[in-house]
Amino acid sequence: MKENDWFIGWFDSKYYHILYKNRDNSEAKAFIRKLTKNINLAENSSVLDLGCGKGRHSIELSKIYKNVIGIDLSSQSINEAKKTTSHGLSFSVQDMREFKLNHKVDGIFNLFTSFGYFSSIDDNLKVLKQCYTNLNEKGLLIIDFFNANKVKNELIKNEVKTIDEISFYIKRTIIDQRVVKTIQFKDNNQPYSYIESVQLLTLKDFTYLFSKSNFKLINTFGDYNLDTYNPNHSNRLILIAKKT
Ligand SMILES: C[S@@+](CC[C@H](N)C(=O)[O-])C[C@H]1O[C@@H](n2cnc3c(N)ncnc32)[C@H](O)[C@@H]1O
After folding, report:
1. Same domain, yes or no: 27 and 107
2. DSSP at 184
3. Which of 57, 72, 96, 118 for mutating ligand 1's site (highest number of atoms within 8 Å of CB)?
């Protein structure tokens, strides 16, 4: 593991799931219902949840589409995801930079900031090119990312969150166009320290990446209610792109 591959250990630890436990199935259910109505993919579609975690969105997607595949690098998360069985739903441990599917899909969902982790910017393009290869003609790519402008302008530098009797001490800084979050805590008197380091990708950056990977941006939204994206105020940057 490279020292800067922070996403391998952190997302595979139980503490990631404790810290983000409020981002739960009910949030996923409401968002997927709205989103899928908007994008209008046929019910007999096959779709991929790329960076699916424990599968909270995959499970909702499987209530709508015929075939749903969830992939994630974290084996712990995929083991959890596999506990939900549903017709046409499957999960596997794979890296989003080089995943392989048995068949092409009609839509790829990359949700809740599951992009922009890698130290090499070229890896963003690797992910998008893999998406292109694995999508059917005119297939859709949906990326739900944070609004980098807002993250930067309203950076909460220090925060303490106590969840399940663990106090997480969180520090955020901007370094080299990334938001770097240091997360420190003790559990059973044992000290832990993790980082999250995510590229501050803007709408302009995504438009550039799409142009380099043969995707056309067709719509954007600014939150899980699918309100209009506003670069200064929106919480999210949700991008809908089509394979050209
Ligand atoms: C912020 S979490 C979101 C998980 C899920 N989409 C959700 O909303 O619950 C990001 C996910 O991306 C996964 N991930 C990180 N790097 C990855 C990679 N190279 N390939 C596949 N998945 C990766 C992590 O393991 C983690 O589950």
Report:
1. yes
2. E
3. 72
The domain total for the chain is: 2
Atom number in ligand 1 closest to CA 110? 6
Distances (CA, A) of 160 to 10, 103, 132, 184, 185: 18, 45, 40, 10, 10
Q: What pTM was estimated for this model as a whole?
A: 0.96
Q: Does some domain include residue 161?
A: yes
Ligand 1 site, residue 146, Cβ cutoff 6 A: no
Ligand 1, atom 26: closest residue by C-alpha: 53
Q: Is residue 1 part of a domain?
A: no
* pLDDT tens-digit map of 129-166: 999 999 999 999 999 999 999 999 999 999 999 999 99
Q: Which domain holds residue 179?
A: 151-196
Supply the DSSP string of 115-161, one letter for each residue: S---SSTHHHHHHHHHHHHHEEEEEEEEEEEE-HHHHHHT---EEEE
Pocket test for ligand 1, best of 35, 47, 114, 181 (most atoms within 8 A of CB): 114
